[in-house]
Amino acid sequence: HHHHLHHHTLTHSLAPKSPPADFSFSLHQKKEPHTSQIQMTRFFSHSSTTLPLRMQPAAQKSLLMLLSLFLCLFLSTSLSSAAATTNPSFIRIKSRKLSSQHDLSYSFYSVPVCRPDQISQSFENLGDYLFGDRIENTVYNFQYNQNIKCQHINNGDKRDNGRSAYDSVVCPVLTEASLNNLIRKVQENYHVEMLVEGLPVANHQYGALCGQLPNREVLQDIYNEAEGFPLGCTVSEGKWILNNHWTFKFKFHENESGQRRVVAAYAIPSSIDWNKHPDACAPDSALPSEVNKLFLDTALIGNQIPWSFSISWEKSEIKYASRWDAYLNMSSADKSVQWFSIVNSIMIVIFLTVMVAIIMMRILNRDIAYYNRDEEEPDETGWKLVHADVFRTPIAPGLLSVFVGSGAQVLAMCVISLAFSAIGFVSVAHRGTLIQIMAVLFALMGTPAGYVSIKFYKMMGGERWKGVTLLTAFLFPGVIFVIFSFINFLLLVGAHSSNAVPITQILMVMGLWFFVSVPLVFLGAFIAWKQEALKHPVGVARLPRLIPPQTIWNKPIVTIFLGGILPFGAVFIQVYFIMSSIWLHKYYFVFGLAFIVFLILIVTCAEITIVLTYFQLCNENYHWWWRSFFTAGSTALYLLLYSVFYFFKLHVDSVLLAMVFFEYMGMISFLFFLLTGSVGFISTLWFVRKIFKSIKVD
Q: CB of 411 within 8 A of CB of 418?
């Protein structure tokens, strides 16, 4: 049984943490100006008088423009296919793509099917293009509720009813190259994906083998394998048949006011050699009889393929609002796995929370009481010994700030997009909308990125804030953009695949990046630089303290690898479902569940990093800055390893698809690394400040 993929794409998100009491985030702090501030003032404004703590009218205007741009994009992507809500008397079937689990997606017209003389493409968003969708008009246009039996499609057929977007039909002559292309597509088990009023046309062979007619004519009430029907079938070694006759079955619902809407659509593909069986349609059914199949062999070269179709209509009680239920019905096995996933995640969180609570309440209370006792010279052991080094500036503080700021940007994007999806803003019908929303949100979250990176950079005593801000704006987005553009070029030029994103969309993404994200990063950085630096609760000694020899369990490599196991364990079942939606065309729609699991991931990352950092400080090792980032960030390493394991289940035959798979999973894992790492770092910083604030230090 071959799965057909639908993307309701993955995502993770997090609970915004309220800043600890000693994190002074007020915009109204006064401090002595110094030269870098004066330079910054000039940098941001031509006039010598800036309003450091209030937004200037120009800034307010630009922010309003950005928000309106976001709303326009949001509405255009969400409402793009709302045009099908008028009361139709005429139905147009649209093609989406040819897709296979084993290879790249292609346009429907990449094979020699009959086409309109004018092909028009529907509006699509960035997510649709990434999934390889190319929604185009077809020759299948007909009256609502009109039953058609075995209609042949001929070259030059006129459409004189005035309701079609084209004048005549073009059926290409089969050449040797197009025959070989067809055979390859059939060998790779390509499926035809089509849409009717925004509803995917499902495959309805109901357990029959490829090319066989279904055993019984009943509606399959679960299509969780997603839509699409096979283009052809491999009969035996070196023998292939082409499904050249498609029987469409539609169910429609009519409401009280007489409005009719399609609520179920499926196709039964069959193969008919019309030369041998000119009367192949069974007299009492829309389905053809079992007849000789149309084999793909060289005898067809120089001729047009005989394409044909039938259509039958049926009135249904399924309400228009419930028409997606058949696609989203999860099997009972899937449901139990989802519940197991939630219970598993909650158990991990409870375990870690109890550990953190024990450390914070019992051990720390005992430690603090011991360290604060009034004896002259207490025996100092454990974490208090490193109080004069624990806030020593780490190596590459600027780069660490960029990592944390970029992680905060990804975190904010995930929280908001998953929250919107959980509430129901993302429709299953508009599959690419979520990716489009995430791209726009990533750009709009430039302000938190700039703010967080400069806030921490200033805390670490950094002075070169402009350089750090530029790195935050360009380093990681730039790396991802370059890798993405390289693979996209190969798809566009080398494979002519529909998975390639058009240049216009790439220019839109660049516009979002340069004209929305970059200015917002600088805005956030400017606000953070104007504020007082965070003060450390204890001072730093002039000379660094020697670190005693560490046990094997406290070596950085060991704790970093251990740190990612529990957070990944809390989410890996959800990761499986999300990856299936991306690579196996299954539907993903449990965003509420994904949001809960995402919050669990955030809590788990924070808690495991705090626990491991506490043990590290007890061993008098004060190098916790980068280590806390990598400890939580190592969750992404397990995601990458899992994606390698998952790849071998896909049976991919194309080198290019393998490259696309690892490029996208690599980028997702890297963003995941930034997200989890920044959560680990920020929570550890809060913990370390908390415990050292509570002890008396000479």
A: no
